[in-house]
Amino acid sequence: MAAPRCCSAATCGSTEPSSCDHPELAQPSAGGAVGNCHGLAKVQAYSAIVIDDDPISTDPAHYRVLWENEFVRVLEYTDTPGVQTTPHRHPNSVMVTLSAFDRRLAAGDREVDVSLPAGQAVWLPAQRHSGHNTGTSPTHAIFVELKGDAAGQPSDTAVGPRPSSR
To answer: Is the distance from CB of 98 to CB of 90 less than 8 angstroms?
Structure first.
């Protein structure tokens, strides 16, 4: 039986971390020593980044859970001018603005500038985006996120809130 390779890179045949051609991919082991390259640890870390795009995980300094049950989760969001968020997802939600704000939302190659007054309630269809506070004031908003079938799935076209249909 062949010795296991240290590295899962297709071009690397090393079986020892010390002779691997990919030291930049080395992962520290639990004891702090450098272990495997981008084997299981790298795949797990990458998977966590791709799968866990919940804003509570991606931007914990800006989002916090106020209340939650099996039907909805209520989040509070705060930031200051210039802050940019990591890409994250929102299920179908109602956003209530507690402050007026200006921000740029981006999803892939699409960008949308949003300017909302304080006290506005808007529908936010399920989407994945990042945000940038482009204004001169802090942002303060509440998100009431739907759960279950009502949460919907992020679409490739939704970026930003939708106006009321009334």
So the answer is: no
* Helices and strands (DSSP H and E) totals, the chain: 2, 9
Two structure tokens written together for 118:
């304080």
Give per-residue pLDDT as tens, 142-164: 999 999 999 999 988 899 998 77
Q: 157 and 107 in contact (C-beta within 8 Å)?
A: no
Which of these, 161, 19, 17, lies nearest to 97 by C-alpha position? 161
Q: Tell me: do 33 and 115 sit in the same domain.
A: no
Residues 38 and 101 in one domain: no
Residue 118 CB contacts under 8 Å (≥ 6 apart), including other chains: 97, 98, 99, 100
- pTM of the full structure: 0.69
